[in-house]
Amino acid sequence: MDREQIYMKFGKPELHQLPVPDIVSLGAYADQLQREAEARGERLPPPIRLQIGEPNFRTPEHIRQAAIDSIASEVQTYGPASGWPWLRELLAEKIARVNGYTVGPENIAISMGGTGGILASLLATINPGDEVLISDPCWPIYLPQLQIAGAVPVTYPLDPANEWLPVIEQLEQRVTPRTRMLMINSPGNPTGAVFPRRVMAELLAFAQRHDLYLLSDECYDQIIFEGEHVSPASLLSRQEFEDGRFIGIYTFSKTYAMTGWRIGYVVAGTRLTKTIVDVLNANLTNISTPVQRAAAAALTGPQDCVVEMRESYRRRRDLVVEQLKEFGRYSYTPHGAFYTLINVSGRHGESRGGRQFALDLITASNVTVTPGQGFGSVSDEYVRISLAATEEELIMGVKAICQLADRPSSPISPPSPSP
C-alpha cells in the first residue's frame, strides 16, 4: 500500500481526526496496516506498542487463586454497595501504612476501578454548571466524566520547565464563584510527575482558602521512583478530614497489575462517603465477591511483586532517560507512574504536533505512541510513551521517535515490507 492508498483509506494524516482516546484509534490504525500488508503477502516489522497505559505483567498467582477459591467455596450473592467490611478494614490499614493518614471502614467505598470511583465522586458533589479545575495535561477520561456530571472543566497548566508541576498563581487566576472542585493527580498520567510535599501543601491550602472539594487521584501511589508520595489527607487534622472536602481515589489496577479486574476505592469523610455509596449503589449495586477476595489477597499476600514491578519500571525509566540524553531529546525525569512525555518538536522550532507525529511514526516505523494533544494543549508538541513494555521495545521505540523527530517535516512513506 503506497502513501496515497493509505490516505484514500484513512484520510490524510494532517486531517485525520482521532477521537478520544487516541490510544485506541492509533492501535487500530497500526493493526489495519498490519492486516493490509499480510493480505498482500507482505510482512511488516512487528509493531512496537508504547501507547498502552497498563502493566505488562500478569496478575500475581496468589491474587488469581483467591478469586478461584471464592468461586468454588462461597455463595455469590449481592454484597454491600460500599464493599465487604473485611476488605474495607484491610484498606484502612493500607491507607495508614502507605498514604499516611487514619480512616475507618466507614470512610471507604469500593468502586468499579479508580475510574468508577472518580465518576461516583463527581456525581455525589457536582451540580450542573459547577466549575472544576483540572490540569493541562491530564488523563483524558476526566473530561467526559465531567461532562456526564454537568460540570464545566477549567484547565490550569502544568509547567514543563519545572518537571510538570502546578503553579498556584495559575490556579488563583482561574478560580471563580462557580468553582466547586480542584482535581489533582500525583504521581501523574501522562507526565510521571510526583508532587513534592511543599506543592501538595500549597494545593491543599488553595482548596481550603476557596472552600473547594479536593479530589486527589492517587492511582499510582505505590509506583514511586524518587521522593515520596504525599497524600493531601496526610496534611489534614481528623476534623478537617471529616468536614468532607477531601476525596481520595485509589485502585488495585496499577500496583498489582489488576487493570481488567476493575476494582478501586474512594476515601472521604463519613457523611460524604455515604453519599458516594448511594451513587455507587444506584450505578452498579456492588463489586463481585471473587474480585474483592482477590483484592484482599493482594493486600495480605506477599508484596515482593509490587517491588519487582516498580523496580522494573524504574530500570526502564532509566534506560529511556539515558537514550533521550544520547539523542539530545531529554527534558525531564519522571519520578513515578510509568510514563514519560517526549518533546518531538523540530530542532529549529518547527512544529509537526504530537498527533501528526504519532501517525507519521506508525507509517515510518510501526511504533505506536500517544499524542500529547489528547492530554491537553500544553503537551501538544509531545508524545507519551508507556514504560510497560520490554527493554528491547523501548530501545527500538525511543530510537525511532528521536530519529523521526530530527527529520524535517515531510510526508512519510509507509514501512518497507520484510522479505
Word description of this protein:
Helices cover 42% and strands 14% of the residues. By secondary structure, the chain is of the alpha/beta class. It folds into 2 domains: 22-57 and 304-406, Aspartate Aminotransferase, domain 1 (Alpha-Beta Complex); 61-301, Type I PLP-dependent aspartate aminotransferase-like (Major domain) (Aspartate Aminotransferase, domain 2, 3-Layer(aba) Sandwich), CATH 3.40.640.10. Strand 7 (213-217), helix 9 (238-242) and strand 8 form a beta-alpha-beta unit. The longest helix has 23 residues, at 304-326. Mean pLDDT is 90; it is low at 1-21 and 415-419.
Instruction: Please state how the strands of the largest beta sheet are arranged side by side.
Output: 2-9-8-7-6-3-4-5
Kindly state the number of beta strands: 13
How many domains comprise the coordinates? 2
Give the strand content. Answer: 5-15%
Helical coverage, percent range: 40-55%
The radius of gyration computed from the alpha-carbon positions, rounded to a whole number of angstroms, is 22 Å
What structural category do the secondary elements indicate? alpha/beta
Bulk shape: globular
Output the CATH class name of the largest domain: Alpha Beta
H/E series: HHEHHEHEHEEHEHEHEEHHHEHEEEH
CATH architectural type of the largest domain = 3-Layer(aba) Sandwich
Mean pLDDT: 90
CATH topology of the largest domain: Aspartate Aminotransferase, domain 2
